[in-house]
Design goal:
The complex is a heterodimer. Chain A is mainly α. Helices cover 67% and strands 0% of the residues of chain A. Chain A is built from six helices and no strands. The longest helix of chain A has 29 residues, at 10-38. The radius of gyration of chain A is 22 Å and the shape is elongated. By secondary structure, chain B is mainly alpha-helical. Chain B is elongated. Classes of the chains: A mainly alpha, B mainly alpha. The A-B interface holds A 51-52, 55-56, 59-60, 62-63, 66, 70, 116-117, 120, 123-124, 127, 131, 134-135, 138 and B 1, 7, 10-11, 14-15, 17-18, 21-22, 27, 30.
Chain lengths: 147, 57
Protein backbone atom coordinates (compact mmCIF):
# COMPACT_ATOMS: atom_id res chain seq x y z
CA UNK A 1 0.00 0.00 0.00
CA UNK A 2 1.52 3.34 -0.97
CA UNK A 3 2.11 5.68 1.99
CA UNK A 4 2.16 9.43 1.79
CA UNK A 5 5.21 10.61 3.72
CA UNK A 6 4.99 14.25 2.62
CA UNK A 7 2.00 15.27 4.76
CA UNK A 8 2.66 15.87 8.48
CA UNK A 9 1.10 13.36 10.80
CA UNK A 10 -1.91 15.16 12.38
CA UNK A 11 -1.57 13.09 15.52
CA UNK A 12 2.02 14.18 16.13
CA UNK A 13 1.10 17.82 15.35
CA UNK A 14 -1.69 17.71 17.92
CA UNK A 15 0.56 16.02 20.46
CA UNK A 16 3.30 18.65 20.12
CA UNK A 17 0.70 21.45 20.36
CA UNK A 18 -0.66 19.91 23.55
CA UNK A 19 2.88 19.50 24.86
CA UNK A 20 3.71 23.15 24.10
CA UNK A 21 0.55 24.34 25.86
CA UNK A 22 1.34 22.12 28.82
CA UNK A 23 4.86 23.54 29.08
CA UNK A 24 3.48 27.07 28.88
CA UNK A 25 1.05 26.22 31.65
CA UNK A 26 3.88 24.87 33.76
CA UNK A 27 5.93 27.98 33.14
CA UNK A 28 3.06 30.18 34.19
CA UNK A 29 2.42 27.96 37.22
CA UNK A 30 6.09 28.25 38.23
CA UNK A 31 5.93 32.05 38.09
CA UNK A 32 2.77 31.95 40.18
CA UNK A 33 4.51 29.74 42.72
CA UNK A 34 7.41 32.16 43.02
CA UNK A 35 4.92 34.95 43.61
CA UNK A 36 3.08 32.76 46.12
CA UNK A 37 6.32 32.13 48.01
CA UNK A 38 7.29 35.79 48.03
CA UNK A 39 3.90 37.12 49.06
CA UNK A 40 1.70 34.58 50.89
CA UNK A 41 -1.58 34.32 49.02
CA UNK A 42 -0.39 36.10 45.89
CA UNK A 43 -0.49 32.90 43.86
CA UNK A 44 -4.20 32.58 44.54
CA UNK A 45 -4.96 36.28 44.14
CA UNK A 46 -3.34 36.28 40.70
CA UNK A 47 -5.65 33.40 39.77
CA UNK A 48 -8.69 35.27 41.07
CA UNK A 49 -9.16 32.97 44.06
CA UNK A 50 -9.86 35.92 46.31
CA UNK A 51 -11.04 34.13 49.46
CA UNK A 52 -8.01 31.84 49.66
CA UNK A 53 -5.60 34.53 48.62
CA UNK A 54 -6.80 37.17 51.04
CA UNK A 55 -7.02 34.71 53.92
CA UNK A 56 -3.45 33.51 53.40
CA UNK A 57 -2.25 37.06 52.79
CA UNK A 58 -3.62 38.03 56.19
CA UNK A 59 -3.16 34.93 58.32
CA UNK A 60 0.36 33.79 57.40
CA UNK A 61 2.17 37.11 57.91
CA UNK A 62 0.11 37.61 61.08
CA UNK A 63 1.34 34.25 62.33
CA UNK A 64 4.94 35.21 61.56
CA UNK A 65 4.52 38.60 63.20
CA UNK A 66 3.02 37.08 66.32
CA UNK A 67 5.98 34.74 66.46
CA UNK A 68 8.32 37.73 66.39
CA UNK A 69 6.30 39.53 69.05
CA UNK A 70 6.50 36.43 71.23
CA UNK A 71 10.31 36.71 71.14
CA UNK A 72 10.80 34.05 68.50
CA UNK A 73 14.10 33.89 66.64
CA UNK A 74 15.21 33.67 63.03
CA UNK A 75 17.37 30.60 62.85
CA UNK A 76 20.69 30.73 61.01
CA UNK A 77 21.26 28.43 58.06
CA UNK A 78 23.91 26.18 59.60
CA UNK A 79 25.42 23.20 57.80
CA UNK A 80 22.98 20.34 58.07
CA UNK A 81 25.63 18.07 59.58
CA UNK A 82 26.18 20.57 62.38
CA UNK A 83 22.58 20.95 63.48
CA UNK A 84 19.93 19.30 61.32
CA UNK A 85 16.98 20.59 63.33
CA UNK A 86 18.24 24.18 63.27
CA UNK A 87 18.81 23.92 59.52
CA UNK A 88 15.33 22.51 59.04
CA UNK A 89 13.78 25.30 61.12
CA UNK A 90 15.83 27.90 59.23
CA UNK A 91 14.64 26.54 55.87
CA UNK A 92 11.04 26.46 57.09
CA UNK A 93 11.19 30.09 58.23
CA UNK A 94 12.53 31.14 54.83
CA UNK A 95 9.50 29.61 53.13
CA UNK A 96 7.30 32.52 54.26
CA UNK A 97 8.98 34.81 51.74
CA UNK A 98 8.78 38.57 52.11
CA UNK A 99 8.08 38.63 55.88
CA UNK A 100 11.28 36.67 56.47
CA UNK A 101 13.25 38.89 54.08
CA UNK A 102 11.96 42.05 55.74
CA UNK A 103 12.73 40.70 59.21
CA UNK A 104 16.24 39.63 58.27
CA UNK A 105 17.03 42.92 56.52
CA UNK A 106 15.69 44.95 59.45
CA UNK A 107 17.83 42.95 61.86
CA UNK A 108 14.89 41.71 63.90
CA UNK A 109 14.28 38.18 65.03
CA UNK A 110 17.23 37.82 67.37
CA UNK A 111 14.85 36.15 69.80
CA UNK A 112 15.05 35.93 73.54
CA UNK A 113 15.87 32.42 74.68
CA UNK A 114 15.04 33.16 78.31
CA UNK A 115 11.63 34.57 77.43
CA UNK A 116 8.76 32.33 78.56
CA UNK A 117 7.15 32.77 75.12
CA UNK A 118 10.30 32.04 73.07
CA UNK A 119 9.22 28.51 72.13
CA UNK A 120 5.78 29.65 71.06
CA UNK A 121 7.39 32.42 69.05
CA UNK A 122 9.71 30.36 66.91
CA UNK A 123 7.14 27.61 66.47
CA UNK A 124 4.67 30.13 65.06
CA UNK A 125 7.34 31.45 62.68
CA UNK A 126 8.36 27.98 61.50
CA UNK A 127 4.78 26.79 61.05
CA UNK A 128 3.90 29.94 59.12
CA UNK A 129 6.63 29.07 56.65
CA UNK A 130 5.54 25.45 56.38
CA UNK A 131 1.93 26.48 55.82
CA UNK A 132 3.11 28.76 53.03
CA UNK A 133 4.65 25.71 51.38
CA UNK A 134 1.19 24.15 51.34
CA UNK A 135 -0.24 27.37 49.93
CA UNK A 136 2.37 27.40 47.16
CA UNK A 137 1.60 23.78 46.27
CA UNK A 138 -2.11 24.62 46.22
CA UNK A 139 -1.40 27.53 43.87
CA UNK A 140 0.55 25.13 41.62
CA UNK A 141 -2.35 22.66 41.50
CA UNK A 142 -4.80 25.47 40.83
CA UNK A 143 -2.67 26.84 37.99
CA UNK A 144 -2.51 23.44 36.34
CA UNK A 145 -6.26 23.05 36.59
CA UNK A 146 -6.18 20.22 39.10
CA UNK A 147 -8.35 22.14 41.59
CA UNK B 1 1.72 36.55 81.02
CA UNK B 2 -0.95 34.80 78.97
CA UNK B 3 -1.50 31.14 79.72
CA UNK B 4 -0.39 28.13 77.68
CA UNK B 5 -4.04 27.61 76.76
CA UNK B 6 -4.11 31.10 75.23
CA UNK B 7 -1.16 30.27 72.98
CA UNK B 8 -2.74 26.93 72.12
CA UNK B 9 -5.91 28.73 71.01
CA UNK B 10 -4.02 31.23 68.88
CA UNK B 11 -2.00 28.51 67.17
CA UNK B 12 -5.06 26.31 66.62
CA UNK B 13 -7.20 29.08 65.16
CA UNK B 14 -4.52 30.30 62.76
CA UNK B 15 -3.51 26.85 61.50
CA UNK B 16 -7.13 25.70 61.21
CA UNK B 17 -8.04 28.79 59.21
CA UNK B 18 -5.35 28.12 56.63
CA UNK B 19 -6.19 24.44 56.32
CA UNK B 20 -9.90 25.25 56.03
CA UNK B 21 -9.49 27.65 53.12
CA UNK B 22 -7.16 25.24 51.32
CA UNK B 23 -9.28 22.11 51.80
CA UNK B 24 -12.85 23.38 51.41
CA UNK B 25 -14.53 25.46 48.74
CA UNK B 26 -17.64 27.02 50.24
CA UNK B 27 -17.63 29.43 53.17
CA UNK B 28 -19.96 27.27 55.25
CA UNK B 29 -17.75 24.21 54.78
CA UNK B 30 -14.64 26.24 55.56
CA UNK B 31 -16.07 27.59 58.79
CA UNK B 32 -17.28 24.17 59.88
CA UNK B 33 -13.91 22.60 59.04
CA UNK B 34 -11.98 25.33 60.86
CA UNK B 35 -14.10 25.04 64.00
CA UNK B 36 -13.82 21.25 63.96
CA UNK B 37 -10.07 21.37 63.52
CA UNK B 38 -9.65 23.97 66.27
CA UNK B 39 -11.73 21.88 68.62
CA UNK B 40 -9.63 18.87 67.69
CA UNK B 41 -6.40 20.70 68.45
CA UNK B 42 -7.67 21.84 71.84
CA UNK B 43 -9.18 18.47 72.73
CA UNK B 44 -6.01 16.62 71.79
CA UNK B 45 -3.89 19.01 73.83
CA UNK B 46 -6.13 18.60 76.88
CA UNK B 47 -6.16 14.81 76.58
CA UNK B 48 -2.41 14.67 76.01
CA UNK B 49 -1.87 16.94 79.00
CA UNK B 50 -3.85 14.67 81.27
CA UNK B 51 -2.07 11.60 79.93
CA UNK B 52 1.30 13.23 80.56
CA UNK B 53 0.18 13.96 84.11
CA UNK B 54 0.15 10.22 84.65
CA UNK B 55 3.82 10.03 83.74
CA UNK B 56 5.64 12.88 85.48
CA UNK B 57 9.26 12.92 84.38
Amino acid sequence: MPTDTTRPNPRSTRTSAVRAASEADRGRAFVLCVAAWLVPGAGHLLQHRLARGLTCLFVLPLMFLLGLLFDGALFPLTPITQSPLTSAAALAERCIGAPWIATAVAGWGRGDVVSPTYEYGWVLMVVAGLLNVLVVLDAWDTALGRK
Amino acid sequence: MPSHFFFLLIFSVLVSTVFAVLQKDTVAEQIRFALTMTAGFVAFAVVAGWLMRLFPL
